[in-house]
Amino acid sequence: MTPVGGQAVLEGVMMRTPRFWAVSVRRPDGRISHVSHAATSVATRHKLLRLPFIRGIVALGDSLAIGFRALGLSAQWAASDDDSDEVTEELSTMSIVVAFVFAIGFSLVLFKASPALLTDFLGLNGPVFALVEGAIRVGILIGYLALLSLIPDLKRVFQYHAAEHMAINALEAGDELTPAVVARHSRIHVRCGTAFLLWVMIVSIVVYVVVGKPDHWYMLVLSRVALLLPIAGVAYEVIRLAGRYGRNPVVRAALAPGLWLQRLTTRVPTLDQIEVSIDSLKTVLALEEDQGVAPQVEVMA
Predict the structure, then answer these.
(1) Consecutive 10-residue runs of the chain (301 residues): their mean pLDDT?
(2) 21: left (phi over 0), alpha (psi -120 to 50) or beta
(3) In terms of DSSP bridges, do strands 32-38 and 5-9 run parallel, antiparallel, or are they unpaired?
(4) Hey, what's the torsion of the CAs at 260, 253, 63, 58, to 10 degrees?
(5) DSSP states of 193-236
(6) Inter-helix orientation angle 249-265/228-245, to 10°
(7) Given strand 20-26, what is the order of strands in its sheet?
């Protein structure tokens, strides 16, 4: 089966297969509009980039780039009363770069530099330093997600996030893609990006114990930033294995924390929201069927 991933956007869902992505949005007048694009990854052209641990870094970059484009499209449609289904303007490359740099910078400060500096202030050393730093980092993540869940406007995004998971779960179970059937499926998925974030933090604890604590605070921060991509590559392999063996009880138990965390970023969707998710999924699957079998490049749900 062709691997499928996705992302919730403003009043809609983006779905992605190895070679295509599509975003469907519920317009203010109730209509569903969608647009699709080729999702050309450099990993499909270079075998080296499909090797374990490296492929995760490439997939993360691809997902961020497509995600920003999908958000831009959804923002245009969700606020437009225009009768046209045409997209008048997409985010420019510069806008995507600026948004990418801001998002990465914010994440590094919040989830990398802050926990490291706070733990350093406590005067800890050795393995205890890495363990406390990791606990602070996980606490910041949970608190951040809990805070976001209190924002009313984000509740609908979290509902679309659940609708995305439910549609993919229905597809992987071989069930009919109708709102009533999809609604019976779980809003939790083992390949979710939320679970990926948690695994990045768990893997980082192990790596930082091995690496140790640098003597100076600036080297401490630099080490956390420099090791981010290798850690993400390892975490991606964990999520990939989870997707393959997700029904195994032992694997499910090991993944339980990441699955629990998704309850902060998903909310029970309405049938109308599920309908939008299905529209996006069917659009991208139709493109894959028309083009034949694509190279296998994994994508997160």
Answers:
(1) 87 92 92 88 76 87 86 78 57 70 90 94 92 95 91 91 96 95 94 88 93 92 94 90 78 84 94 97 91 50 61
(2) beta
(3) unpaired
(4) 150
(5) HHHHHHHHHHHHHHHHHHH---SSHHHHHHHHHHTHHHHHHHHH
(6) 120
(7) 5-9, 12-16, 20-26, 32-38
